[in-house]
Every structure is written in C-alpha cells, then in structure tokens.
Amino acid sequence: MGWRMGEETKNIHSEGLFISRRLARNLTSMRKHGVVELLFTSDGYEDKKTDRGSIPGVLKTFNFQKIEPNKEHFSVYMQKNYPEWPPMVMEFWTGWFDHWGTEHHKLNVDEFGETLTSILKSGSSVNFYMFHGGTNFGFMNGANNANSPKHTITSYDYDAPLSEHGEMTAKYFKIRELLQQHLPEQVPKVLPDPPATKGCRAYGSVKIDQFIHLDSMLQSLQPIASKDVVPMEMLDINNHGGQSYGFIMYRKELKEGGELMINGLVHDRAVILLGGVPLAIMDKTTEDKVIPIKVLKPTNLDILVENMGRVNYYDFASSLLNKQRKGLLDTVTLDQKTLQDWQIYPLEFKKPFIESVLQSNEWKSDGKTDVEGPIMLRGTLKIQDEPKDTFIDMEGWTKGVVFVNSFNLGRYWSRGPQKTLYLPGPLLRTGDNQIVVFEIHKPFSMMTMVDVPKLE
User: Fold this and answer.
1) HEC states along 217-264?
2) Which of 204, 258, 272, 444 could be cross-linked to 335 through a Cys-Cys bond (beta carbons 3.0 to 4.6 Å apart)?
C-alpha cells in the first residue's frame, strides 16, 4: 500500500517554496502518527516546474497523457535526478472529462498505444486514470475555472478503456496487446480471457403521462422565512449545516411593478418567474440583470437558482475553495429599493421529498403537451424479466434532473455533449419502475430507453 501526499501541487500554487514547506510538514505529521508505508507525490511532467511537487525521501511519480517527442523522457529524468527511485506514471490519462456545451473528449487509440508503448519500454510502472469510466450520479459533478466555471457533465465516461457502463473498448484490447508484448520474460504472457459482459437493453419508449406544477411541489416543503436573500449554505437546515446541493428558490410577493434588478452574479444559473411565468434566465455570464415587470395584482416573484457544481481544483493557497456559495449572494431590488421578507425553499431533491411529491393529489393527466417548466413529470417503465443496464435518451427535453425509483440519476441538458443518462440495471426492478423528471424549461411527452450511450 502507498500514500499519495500530494497531487499536482506544483500546478495549483505558484510558489515552489510554499509547496515544499507544506509537503515537509505533511511528511513529519504522517511519520509522527505511525504511517510507515510508501509515500509518493504525483505531478505533471513540465520543464520549469518538474521539481516543485517533490520532497526528499518520497517517491516522485508523474501524471500525463502524452510524451512530447522533443523533450527528455521522464524515465531518463528520473535516472539522472532520482536514481534511488523506480520510474512510475501514477496517472496515465486515458481520455478526459467533459463540460456542458463542449465536445466529448476522445484520445485516439493509436496515440494512446504509442504513449503506453513508450512507458512500458522504459521499464516504468503505470497506473491508468481512468481505467473504468464512471458517473456523477445526483448532484455530485464538479466544475473547473473559478472565474468562469465550466461545469462537469453527469457522465464521467472519460473515453476510458472500460466505458461508463463497463464495456470493453478498443483501448482495453490495446492494453492487453501491449502488455503481452512487453511483459518480463519470467511472467507468463498468456492473459486470461476477458470476462463476459451482460450487455445493455433497449427497453423502448416510456410515455410521460402525468405532471405536477412547481407550486404543488412546494407543498411538500416548509419554507424558511428570511429578511434577506441568503446563499443555500447559510440556511438553518440539516442540523445547522445548511444546504449543500440542488436548487434553491426565493419567493417574494410583489404588489407593484417596476425595474427588477438581480444584483451581482447568480450562482450558478437562475430562472426568474412572475406568477409562475418565466421572465428571464441568468447565469455567471450575466451580472446586475435588470428586468422590467408589470404587476396588476399581488403576484409571486420566484427566483429559482441551480447549484450546478462547485470548483474542486484550484490554488490551495487561495480561500476560494472554502468560500464557494450557491444561490443569491447579493440583493434583489425593485426600482432601486431592496426587497426583503422572503420565503426560501431548499429544493435538495432528497428521497423523502421526492416520495412526498409522488404521493400528492395534485398530479394531472389531462393530455396536455404544451406545459412549461419548472415542472415535475412522471411515467412508468415496465420490465418483464431480469433488469439490465440501459440508457435514457433525453432527446426533446431541455434541462433538468431525472429520478428512477426515487434515485437521482443526475442532470441532463440539451446543449450536450451528453444526450443519454446511464441507468444501471440494479436500480431497476422487475415490474413497474417510476421515471420522474424535474424539467426547468420545456418538457417532452416521452423518453426512450436505448442500449448505447450518446456522447457527442
């Protein structure tokens, strides 16, 4: 067993001395508390910063996706500078993760094979990141770029050797091929056969035949009275721990119209509604949004804000990672007067809330197809035999979250690159399976269960 003391520390702080001192303190503390196992660091291989993440007496390893042809090979560097340690690639990046609104990242199999060949020929050990793709179920995706966040999609397929749903890809078989070519002579070169896979099932279309409006959903929540708007983390819920994930809605009854202003930035994306009718959308590219509104009778102003994920990789000397707050962080004004006395609804979408909404008498099934979000809808997937993995194709839907048998599968968004949501077989059951969708904008009348993912 080994302990990683630091990952890419040289990349997340500009001062090498600061990093060295921090690592030295960590080393002293770990040895003091009885850690006797192998310790190591892992950093990218760059000319000017290569030594920043290292510390004497600790194995130095590397993270990268390719080896530059005009650069000293990492194994040569190790032999020259750290001859007491074996060369090790701790993170050989087999692909990359995706953000909403970008293309799906792919690493060509041949290029992948060339880099792996170079690693194996050098006598280095290698660890694949990722070897098996995964899923950011629920609201557990993160983000990058603090000043202009790019939010990670639900799928963490990563173009890995084993896909999100465990399918063996061309990279998997390339790894087998190259390992057989470069194994030491004393190691048998006959590898076991790949295990059989269960495959995925295309269950076909599921009709979405019932819906419930946001106001009716809110009956399953106890609003929090607050003089001012506050971020979700500051709500006195969850044993004084605040709200961590999901959506937060701010409600204020207006008796007159004027120029509504959402001051500052929203964190991270907001829909502004008046009397349940969407007026505007805000995100982190929109600051100090002004919206002219007309009010003829007392009407609810609702501001529904989605926490789309927090930045999880940044300069560790910065306080940003401890200061990320979601929701509204500034005031809301009407004709330059601050609006106060709000009702705040923490929409965490935990299982008790979902099940409470499902038991409501407010569900409608009147055949309408022109309903608008925010809205919750549901349908039933019927399975006759043993359930298998499948994918929910969200073609026709806009943006929201899907729940299967009250389990939060994660977010979807029409802007891509993710068009399907992975639905593992163990979440399904023989018989009826309830599919619930919280759609923020425009819903669709059906969804299709397919047997292959769509990442574009």
Assistant:
1) HHHHCCCEEECCCCCHHHCCCCCCCCCCCCEEEEEEEECCCEEEEECC
2) 258
How big is the chain, counted in residues?
456
Overall pTM > 0.90: yes
pLDDT tens per residue across span 220-239 = 999 999 999 999 999 999 99
DSSP-H helix ranges across 33-169: 74-81, 109-121
Instruction: Tell me the mean pLDDT in the region 281-291.
Output: 90
- ∠ at Cα 82 (79, 86), nearest 5°? 70
Model confidence at 72, pLDDT cuts 50, 70, 90, reads confident
Strands (DSSP E) along 139-195, which ranges? 143-144, 150-151, 155-156
Pull the structure tokens for residue 29: 């503390």
Q: Which helix (H) or strand (E) holds 357?
A: helix 351-358
Residue 138 structure tokens: 């629920």
CA dist 269 and 278 (Å) reads 14
What average pLDDT does this structure show over 427-434?
A: 98
Residue range 172-182: average pLDDT?
95
322-358 per-position pLDDT tens digit:
889 999 999 999 999 999 999 999 999 999 999 999 9
Q: Print burial letters for 377-407: b (CB count within 10 Å at least 16), e (below 16).
A: bbbebebeeebbbbbbbbeebbbbbbbbebb
Using the predicted structure, report yes or no on whether residue 48 has a pLDDT greater than 60: no
Backbone CA torsion sign across 271, 272, 274, 280: negative
Query: Burial level of 41, CB count in 10 A (0-12/13-18/19+)?
Result: buried
| DSSP designation for 66 | -
Strands 337-338 and 332-334: antiparallel
Q: Which two tokens stand for residue 384?
A: 């006759």
Describe the strand order of the beta sheet including 299-306 as a list of residue ranges. Answer: 224-226, 342-347, 247-254, 299-306, 269-274, 277-283
State pLDDT tens for residues 441-451.
999 999 999 99
Contact between 339 and 251 under an 8 Å Cβ cutoff? The reply is no
Residue 204 backbone dihedrals phi, psi, to 5 degrees: 90, -160
The per-residue pLDDT for 5 is 81
Encoded tokens for 104:
């799906």
The DSSP 8-state label assigned to residue 34 in this structure reads T
Considering only CA atoms, which of 69, 67, 70, 57 is closest in space to residue 26?
Answer: 57
Q: How many CB atoms lie within 10 A of CB 280?
A: 17
Q: What is the pLDDT of residue 43?
A: 85
Residue 284 — left, alpha, or beta (φ > 0 → left; ψ -120 to 50 → alpha)? alpha
